[in-house]
């Protein structure tokens, strides 16, 4: 699998990354997916302290500890479960970021995280304090690089120019093209995009009809518009999954399309689609058939 440089860092990550949030909570079942990802050449694994109350980090750490030097491990901080563990609250304080990494390192069974990401953010957050926390963690050797998971332009405009962040995780796919107007800005700040929601909840896979039947539209697409658009894409190229990945990876701003998998079958389908992207010769026509929406809130 090809790799791309992540922002201005020395990290090079696989064009397909594994989003670990959907991993089974059973260690054996999760191992089938993680082992297959490694076999396919995936080296970028993304988790968060929020997922399954930390259990996801535990599983990822257990399954990857023997391969630690061969992978790029990313996790996130900022969301804190309350005592009843039935909801969470936002804490972007310096103290929480610096304590959070220690808990994540313990669960992940590692001495460092390659990419530590702020898991959200608002314009009202203490950004100087946040950046100071990440920079200190770099100096102390707990993290190699840091980034943010956010779709808010005003947050990105505040965070990126005043930090050495190297990644922005954003939802981006054929049906959600809102991030495109911000790609140049992100690259100019020395960062790359890693995508989430890359296959739009399965709508951009071979299971699109099943997923469509269980949807009520998608973002600005009504149910009828969604069906028409998906059918049109299929008419242009029979593998909507390959087209979806080709579209994402056609942008140099993007370092990796992160895709989740709850089974080895799902992961294999993504890898098969990735290996077929060179057969998608009409990507411009496919892209032209989708909406080019823009973010309408959190811009300033």
What coarse outline follows from CA principal-axis ratios? Answer: globular
Q: Name the helix and strand elements from N-terminus to C-terminus, one letter apiece.
A: EEEHEHEEEHEHEHEHEHHHEHH
Oligomer kind:
single chain
C-alpha-based Rg, rounded: 19 Å
Structure explained in plain terms:
By secondary structure, the chain is an alpha/beta fold. Helices cover 38% and strands 18% of the residues. It is built from eleven helices and twelve strands. It has an eight-stranded parallel beta barrel with strand order 3-4-5-8-9-10-11-12, surrounded by four helices. Strands 1-2 form a two-stranded antiparallel sheet. A two-stranded antiparallel ribbon has the order 6-7. A hairpin with a 6-residue loop joins β1 and β2. α1 (27-40) runs parallel beside α10 (264-275) and α2 (55-64) crosses α3. The protein is globular. The model has no long low-confidence stretch (mean pLDDT 96).
